[in-house]
């Protein structure tokens, strides 16, 4: 089982209008700061956060109970007293199932803590997270033939394809910046991953590397995934091509 917490800034759109028309630079700085603080607070509890939209974040929160969530919520409220934030917690065998359970808890108004605006229920048996860290193989060579913006367009195309194909397997894909992606992929096998990567890269003259990390917490799984990706690079230097590699940190 994996536990996800969806953190949302409530009423963000209407609030931004109150800043006037010359607000975009302010909003970009604010969004970056909020993401930094949300990531910091959850990371301190062995979680990892991905931005879904800049007013909504997904955290893998295996091992966190209601009090842990309330503590983070209280700190965020102190940092951003002009904004209202809520959390919805869900668990499942796959990331998509956990996402649905969190979504339904919010939709149905199933409050875990009314004062802190926390929906859903924190589970004790969410003790396994699987994360993929995917990047473009030899991306510096891509820069030799494409301009910076053309590279961005290509990366966004890859992101869209990865998100679409992994969603069919109940996995959630997030863009990390550069040419890096992470996929919360509980239940997805290496064989399925290989099939997805081949389909995504068909016809675009790009190869992808995929490190898979499995751990009890989101942060442990992410660390394992990045170690696995680094191992792929090290093996390549030795002349060994292994585009998918898995490390378990249980």
Automatic annotation (TrEMBL):
Keywords from the named record: GTP-binding, Hydrolase, Nucleotide-binding
One GO MF term: GTP cyclohydrolase IIa activity
Record bears the keyword GTP-binding: yes
EC nos: 3.5.4.29
Domain GGDEF: 127-248
Tagged with keyword Secreted: no
Catalytic activity: GTP + 3 H2O = 2-amino-5-formylamino-6-(5-phospho-D-ribosylamino)pyrimidin-4(3H)-one + 2 phosphate + 2 H(+)
Origin: domain of life: Archaea
Signal peptide range: none
Free-text function comment from the UniProt entry: Catalyzes the formation of 2-amino-5-formylamino-6-ribofuranosylamino-4(3H)-pyrimidinone ribonucleotide monophosphate and inorganic phosphate from GTP. Also has an independent pyrophosphate phosphohydrolase activity.
Name the record gives this protein: GTP cyclohydrolase III
Organism lineage: Archaea, Nitrososphaerota, Nitrososphaeria, Nitrososphaerales, Nitrososphaeraceae
């Amino acid at each position: 089982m994996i536990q996800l917490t969806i953190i949302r800034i409530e009423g963000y759109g209407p609030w931004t209008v109150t800043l006037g028309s010359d607000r975009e630079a302010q909003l970009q700085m604010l969004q970056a700061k909020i993401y930094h603080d949300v990531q910091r607070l959850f990371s301190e509890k062995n979680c990892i956060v991905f931005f879904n939209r800049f007013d909504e974040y997904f955290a893998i929160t295996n091992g966190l109970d209601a009090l842990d969530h309330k503590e983070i919520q209280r700190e965020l409220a102190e940092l951003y007293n002009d904004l209202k934030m809520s959390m919805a917690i869900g668990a499942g065998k796959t990331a998509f199932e956990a996402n649905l359970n969190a979504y339904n808890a919010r939709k149905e108004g199933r409050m875990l803590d009314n004062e802190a605006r926390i929906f859903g229920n924190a589970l004790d048996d969410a003790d396994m997270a699987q994360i993929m860290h995917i990047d473009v193989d030899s991306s510096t060579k891509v820069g030799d033939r494409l301009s910076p913006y053309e590279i961005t367009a290509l990366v966004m195309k890859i992101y869209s394809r990865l998100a679409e194909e992994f969603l069919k397997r109940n996995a959630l894909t997030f863009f990390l910046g550069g040419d890096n992606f992470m996929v919360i992929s509980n239940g997805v096998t290496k064989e399925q991953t290989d099939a997805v990567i081949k389909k995504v890269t068909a016809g675009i003259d790009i190869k992808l590397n995929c490190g898979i990390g499995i751990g009890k917490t989101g942060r442990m799984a992410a660390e394992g995934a990045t170690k696995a990706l680094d191992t792929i690079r090290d093996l390549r230097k030795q002349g060994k091509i292994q585009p998918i590699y898995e490390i378990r940190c249980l």
